[in-house]
Amino acid sequence: MELFLQFCINGLMLGMMYALVAVGFTLFFGVLDVIVFSHGDTVMLASFTGLGMYRLLEFFHPGLGAGWVVFWVLAAAVAVVAVLGMLTARFIIMPLRGAPALNTLLATMMFGTALREAVRLFFPDGSNPKPFPRLLPDWSAQFGTLNLRFDNLVLFLTGALIIVLVHLLITRTKLGMAVRASAQDAEAAQLMGVNFRLIVLVTFALGSAAAAFAGVMNGLYYNEINFNLGLMLGAIGFSAAVIGGLGNIYGAICGGFIFAFLQTAGVAAMPFASAYKDVFAFGVVIVMMALRPTGLIAEQSSRRV
Amino acid sequence: MFQPLRIEHLSVAYGNARVLHDVSMEIPPRRITCLLGANGAGKTTLIRAVVGLTPPREGSITFDGIEISKLPPHRTAALGIACIPEGRRIFPKMSVQENLLMGAYLERSKSKVRASLEKVYNLFPRLAERREQAAGTMSGGEQAMVSIGRGLMHEPRLMIVDEPSLGLSPALVNDNFRIIRAVLEAGTAVFLVEQNVRQTLAVSSYGYVLAQGRVTACGTADELKNDPQVQKAYFG
Q1: Which residues of B are less than 8 Å from A192 in CB distance?
Q2: Are A244 and A251 in contact (CB under 8 A)?
Q3: Contact criterion met (CB below 8 Å) for A189 and A103
Q4: Residue B10: pLDDT over 90
Q5: What is the mean pLDDT of chain A?
Q6: How many other CB atoms are there within 10 angstroms of residue B230's CB atom?
Q7: Nearest to residue A225, comparing CAs of A93, A290, A130, A88?
Q8: Spatial separation of the C-alpha atoms in residues B24 and B201, rounded to whole Å
Q9: Chain A residues within 8 A of B150 when measuring between CB atoms
Q10: Structural domain contains residue A305
């Protein structure tokens, strides 16, 4: 029983991280019909920005309170990555709007590689894994063999809060209404007075900010980051968005948790083969795609009646 | 009162394919001006150029004395040009009410938005009944109401209506014409693109005929009704 709960907790933590990444994929696809393959590396950049900020603070403000350190690490990661997202949209994706989707796909893939290489080459000793500081208090509660960590709880609740905020922004505000309208019919939205370019930038800032949380969360959860962590998180986030139904935010969130469930279920069911958990999870994703090509919540098929 | 929409020597091309050649027109306020023409004559392209979706290659378009031919659509919308686009183009996954609210996207005053909403619901009681329904799940006629209602939400100065009766039953077409006439009372200029020539000429005061990207005839509605070319093409 305790082992089961432990698996659940791990699954929920991973699921939250994946959901945060998948939300970006699905938002970008909804508004611009493109897959932004550099999105995973955006997550990686957020981790490294957080680490860089931590080192700067350590150097210039050694006595700063832990709460402030967390705040600044997060703020730096979110700000840098949100701006990067907007620049990507403005200078890579928008200019390629008239071109075949394949070009955008390639361009973003190459941009992701450039980001990865830039971190590897320019971050001090960037090609080796970096320890990520434990910024949250390491309190934990022990229930039998079940270990409940306070920092995990904080990470999970923060992630949930971000997703709820993104959801409220999209469903309840005028800005969100403009984002949804642009996703459903960009030209009609423009005729209503929506500044489409601005909406694209806002969407990319929003999706990238969610990814920034995933990046910092990733560092805090594993206490280690690596220049190529975005490859795996990108592939997982993309899969999560696809199995949920590209373009649908709920789908992306469900997809993230489903993928994490598959991974942890893979480990739980076959403890002797835990190294194959990703093989198992991606294999199931392939089967799911074959059975339900539109994803759990079909967005595209009903787009234009 | 504002100055009319003036289109002068407009040419539009997609790549090398020239769609409009040297088109000039004037759409004055408080009148219905209609645009007639067969499929493929360039009517929708002309509309797209006016609202800013397809920037013209040559020529000028001015509205109320402002050059708008290079403005993006959200800027022309801000000048008071509303468009009920061809094919209705409602937001299928949004509720009827949200669709209407999108029509008032540029209106800041909440009380004005509420008043417009009230007005549109009075005009189309059917929409009031279905305000929470996803617009994409409604019938074609109801979707046309959403599209027209959405266009009325912002009290436009120029209302462009592109084929509102396409695929609708005669009763609904009559409804549409009744509403288009009602729009005029607010002093709006109406630019009506329609296939239904008889009914269009009956409500319009002036009209242009477009064929293969050129204006081939223009005149008052009566003149056009008696124009041999129009007679031959449309009244057979």
Answers
A1: 77, 102-103, 105-106, 150
A2: yes
A3: no
A4: yes
A5: 91
A6: 20
A7: A130
A8: 20
A9: 192
A10: no
**Confidence band (pLDDT; 50, 70, 90) for A299?**
low
pLDDT range class, residue A304, cuts 50, 70, 90: very low
Interface of B with A in 147-166 (CB under 8 A): 150, 154
Question: pLDDT per residue over A150-192, tens digit each?
Answer: 888 999 999 999 999 999 999 999 999 999 999 999 999 999 9
Provide the CA B130 distance to its chain's centre, in angstroms: 25
Instruction: Report the candidate in B131, B107, B89, B130 with the shortest Cα–Cα distance to residue A174.
Output: B107
> Domain boundaries in chain B?
29-57+66-235
Residue numbers of the domain that contains A206: 24-229
Going from the C-alpha of A23 to that of each of A28, A179, A228, A300, the distances in angstroms are 9, 14, 21, 16
Whole-number pLDDT of residue B235:
63
Dihedral of CA B39/B41/B47/B53: which sign?
positive
- Asked whether B149 and B131 are in contact (CB, 8 A), the reply is no
Among candidates B77, B85, B105 on the partner chain, residue whose Cβ is nearest the Cβ of A178: B105
Type of residue numbered B129: E
The reply to whether A46 falls in a domain is: yes
End-to-end CA distance of chain B: 40
Per the CB < 8 A criterion, the answer to whether B75 and B63 are in contact is no
| Total domain count, chain A | 1
pLDDT for A302 = 42
What H or E segment, with its residue span, contains residue A225?
strand A224-225
Task: Say whether B106 and A192 touch across the interface (CB within 8 A).
Answer: yes
What is the spatial distance between Cα A302 and Cα B94, in angstroms, rounded to a whole number?
12
Dihedrals phi, psi of B124, to nearest 5 degrees = -125, 85
Do A92 and A39 touch, CB atoms closer than 8 A?
no
Mark yes or no for CB contact A188/B89 under 8 Å.
yes
| Alpha carbon distance, N-terminus to C-terminus of chain A | 49
Query: Angle B222-B227-B228 (CA atoms, 0-180°, nearest 5)?
Result: 150
Residue pLDDT, tens place only, B42-58: 999 999 999 999 999 99
Residues B185-217 pLDDT 10s? 777 889 998 877 888 888 889 999 998 899 988
> Which ipTM score applies to this complex?
0.91
- Picking from B77, B94, B98, the nearest residue to A191 by CB comes out as B77
| A18, A256 contact by CB (below 8 A) | yes
Q: Do B94 and A185 touch (CB under 8 A)?
A: no
Q: Does the residue A255 lie in any domain?
A: no
Fold of B29-57+66-235: Rossmann fold (3.40.50)
With 90 as the cut, is the pLDDT of residue A297 above it? no
Extract the tokens encoding A176: 């969100």
Give me the pLDDT at residue B1, please.
62
For A269, left (φ over 0), alpha (ψ -120 to 50), or beta? alpha
Q: Give A303's DSSP letter.
A: S
Q: Are A82 and A205 in contact, with CB atoms under 8 Å apart?
A: yes
